[in-house]
UniProtKB/TrEMBL annotation:
InterPro entries: HAD_sf, Ubiquitin-like_dom, Ubiquitin-like_domsf, UBLCP1
Pfam families documented for this protein: ubiquitin (PF00240)
Descriptive protein name: Ubiquitin-like domain-containing CTD phosphatase 1
Ubiquitin-like domain sequence ranges: 3-81
UniProt superkingdom: Eukaryota
Molecular function GO terms recorded: protein serine/threonine phosphatase activity
Gene Ontology terms describing biological process: regulation of proteasome assembly
GO CC annotations, alphabetized: nucleus
C-alpha cells in the first residue's frame, strides 16, 4: 500500500506518493534529497515518531502508522549553502589578533576617567561654610560617613 506524505521545507510543500509501507525512513530521506537537494544526513524530520522518540533511518514507514497526507516538517540545509559558511574565511589584512596585545595595568586611582571625574568635582564643588573658622583654635574633622578618603 502506498504512503502519501506532505513534507514542508523552506516555505514549500512537497507531496510524496512514491513510497510504500515497506520502505524505510532512509528511503524517504533519499526521495527528499531528489526533491530538495538536502543530503539525508543533514535532514531532520519533525513529526516522525515511534514510541515517543524520533524514528531511526531503519524504521519501516508502515510501523509509524501514518495517516494519508500526514504533514511532516523537514529541517536541513543544502550543501551549496553550507560551503559558503564552512569554507575558510578570506584573508583580511584589517583583522587584528587582540589575544597577543598585552594590556597595561593601570591602578584605579591613576585611570584617566577617574582623574577626570575628580578634576570635574573639584572644579564644580561649592563649599558651604557652616561656621567660620576661629582664630587660634584647632580644627577637628570627624568623618562619620567615611566620605573623605
Amino acid at each position: 500500500m502506498a504512503v502519501s506524505l506532505i513534507i514542508k521545507w523552506g516555505g514549500q510543500e512537497f507531496l510524496i506518493t512514491t513510497l510504500s509501507e515497506e520502505d524505510t525512513v532512509l528511503d524517504l530521506k533519499q526521495s527528499l534529497k531528489g526533491l530538495t537537494g538536502v543530503l539525508p544526513e543533514r535532514q531532520k524530520l519533525l513529526g516522525l515518531k515511534i514510541k515517543g522518540k524520533p524514528a531511526e533511518n531503519d524504521v519501516k514507514l508502515g510501523s509509524l502508522k501514518l495517516k494519508p497526507n500526514t504533514k511532516i516538517m523537514m529541517m536541513g540545509t543544502r550543501e551549496e549553502s553550507l560551503e559558503d559558511v564552512l569554507g575558510p574565511p578570506p584573508d583580511n589584512e584589517d583583522v587584528v589578533n587582540d589575544f597577543d596585545i598585552e594590556e597595561e595595568v593601570v591602578e584605579v586611582e591613576n585611570r584617566e576617567e577617574n582623574l577626570l571625574k575628580i578634576s570635574r568635582r573639584v572644579k564644580e564643588y561649592k563649599i558651604e561654610i557652616l561656621n567660620p573658622p576661629r582664630e587660634g583654635k584647632k580644627l577637628l574633622v570627624l568623618d562619620v560617613d567615611y566620605t573623605l578618603f
